[in-house]
Amino acid sequence: MRFNKQCILWLSALAILFCMSLYIPSSTFVSSQTSDRLLPIYCVETDSKVVALSFDAAWGNEDTRKILEILKKHNVKVTFFMTGGWVSAYPDDVKAIAADGHDLGNHSENHKHMTQISESECKDELMKVHEKVKELTGVEMCLFRPPYGDYNNQVVTIARENGYFPIQWDVDSLDWKDYGVENIKNTVLNHKHLGNGSIILCHNGAKFTAEALDSLITGLKEKGYELVPISQLIYKDTYNINHEGRQLK
Fold this sequence. Notes:
Layout: H1 5-21, E1 43-44, E2 50-57, H2 64-73, E3 79-82, H3 84-89, H4 91-99, E4 103-106, H5 119-137, E5 143-144, H6 153-161, E6 165-166, E7 171-172, H7 181-189, E8 199-203, H8 209-222, E9 226-227, H9 230-233, E10 240-241, E11 246-248
Parallel strand pairs: 1-11, 2-3, 2-8, 2-9, 3-4, 5-6, 7-8
Antiparallel strand pairs: 10-11
Helix pairs in contact: 2-8, 5-6, 7-8
């Protein structure tokens, strides 16, 4: 049987392709989960039974001192994310939070939707309150929670470039809905995402938060959790964030 030159070349090419397919290294495989979307830290992967309570401070301060008293009673440290307006309005509260050993966190200067402003405005929103807090307390903040939980790649990138860890939450107390003390407790303690490394969202200035806090902390401790500030919960060096926003070592 004779093969013309074109047929021989065609069969040779097929043979080469077949051989190449046998030797493609497994490291070239790319998971379909890969995404270009940048994520903040929603929670942390850890074997330790620890969670972090956090409070967003953007409006009033009527309950701030009561919250601090309850935290001190339980010897619990938390994280307060403060807007620039709140810092300017209540400088003594900011100093008291710092003096009690809690995290001071950045919640932007004016509580804007960060995804709807320019890159330069985004940086200003971050750094204006940073400088206010530094001047007031000497603290260089490194934790940033975007208002409304609103972020995109630009927001995450600018935060990281300016020395910040962008932080979200995986357990929302819904205290801002003013449903009552029992609702806050049940929402958190029975939340489907509550677990090792959870970050819990609360607010100062909400109607029932301070009233619910004592029993909420007690309930978390009864479940075996130690409460730590976010700065002690997260990994600072060499970490990854998966598609759920879970920080992995």
